[in-house]
Amino acid sequence: MVSNNPNLTLALSLDSADPLSSFREKFLIPQHDGKDALYFTGNSLGLQPRSASDALKTELEDWATLGVTGHIRARNPWMHYHELFTSHLSEMAGALPSEVVAMNALTVNLHLLLVSFYRPSGTRTKILCEAKAFPSDRYALVSQIHFHGGNPDIDLVELEPREGEHCLRLEDIEKVIFELGDELATVMIGGVNYYTGQLHDLKNITSAAHKVGATCGFDLAHGMGNVPFELHDWDVDFASWCSYKYMNSGPGAVSGIYVHERHHNSGIPRLEGWWGHEKSTRFKMDPDYVSMGTVESWQMSNAPVLNMAVHKASLEIFEAAGGIKKLRERSLRLTAFLEKTVHEVSASTGVNLEIITPSNPEHRGAQLSIVAHGQGRDLYDKLSSEGVIVDWREPDVIRMAPVPLYNSFEDIARFGIILEDALRNSRT
Q1: CA–CA gap between residue 313 and residue 310 (Å, rounded)
Q2: I need a surface site. Which of 183, 190, 301, 334 has the fewest CB within 10 A?
């Protein structure tokens, strides 16, 4: 009987003892047959905060009643709206407040950052990334190489895991960096790999890149709001992220960037727009650009307030929960419980459920990527029919992320019961 399942009993006791369990109530859970679905795709799109509707309503009301004067007189004045995120984002990124800003969309920001940090010259023309990076990252890198007149077949170096392995080893990344030496212009890697869930060693990768004279940056789409970073102390040059995954800010929500403070006034090139102009004189409409002198100088346009309103609501929940480091502690427990559950189902059914995400918790975020050998997409379809919302990636990987703000140990235990039944039924 499900009610006597020991894993479920354990899960209920773990939820009861965890003070962060109550934060689940701050989110709207998709429904399946009148009950909460088992939602494990916060690594693709985070759930809607219950406060999102009121956050949007506030800005719509101010627009309706104030019109253009809302830039100054709104409850959250639109002129400075992006500044509402500075403290939250700097805490998550491990950055100085002057090093982070919310703006644009992820791939737009990657291009803007590469304008500054990929400057091929002489023999130094190569970009290093991981093989099977998120496709949009690869498109950006290839197009940047083309833009500079290079050849991606030569200038894009893609790191493959060792034969028979799924994840990259730090020593192999460092080895290639040192081998490329003065041919390497830029390292640009996904801080957490979208496919395997591997969390890379950003500190040591950055150090290796700098030793050979290259710049180093990261796509943190699967990292921000998932794991804590120390970008400033690790000397990372640049990074960008989205906010619609672990930061629960809605589909297509605003991105953000980090640029180390040493670059702010270094004279490196960047594309410029009026919102990067010194704000005290911005509205004098002078023809000559005067930099803000911070990461804000990479801004080009004023804040998309309606897009950002939910971002504000979500980040307030992070703050109420004690911040990313506190949530990371719960995340480690949840992911370990999921790992344990998958191994137990594998043992009880005899089906090889291979977790390709690193087993070391320090080398992964919330996500586990699972290959159910011999099963195929039909297993994903069976799980979906039972209200389990996970992500399928060709050819044979199920990705799932127990998010600490709204997933529960009970979610995981019930997933295990459904998974075991699906695997047993597939063999009858």
Answers
A1: 5
A2: 301
48 forms bridges with which residues in the sheet? 28
The whole-angstrom separation of Cα 154 and Cα 390 is: 37
**What are 273-300's pLDDT values in tens digits?**
999 999 999 999 999 999 999 999 999 9
Domain 2-36+323-426 sits in CATH at: 3.90.1150.10
Q: Treating both helix axes as pointing N-terminal to C-terminal, what angle do 106-117 and 135-147 enclose, rounded to 10 degrees?
A: 40
Tokens representing 40 are 């494990």
Residue 166 to residue 74: CA distance in whole angstroms: 50
CATH architecture, range 55-320: 3-Layer(aba) Sandwich (3.40)
Cα distance between residue 241 and residue 221, in whole Å: 4
pLDDT by residue (tens digit) across 71-81?
A: 999 999 999 99
Total number of residues shown for the chain: 428
Map out the domains of the chain as residue ranges. 2-36+323-426, 55-320
Query: What is the tens place of the pLDDT at every residue in 327-361?
Result: 999 999 999 999 999 999 999 999 999 999 999 99
Q: Report the predicted TM-score, pTM, of the whole model to 2 decimal places.
A: 0.96
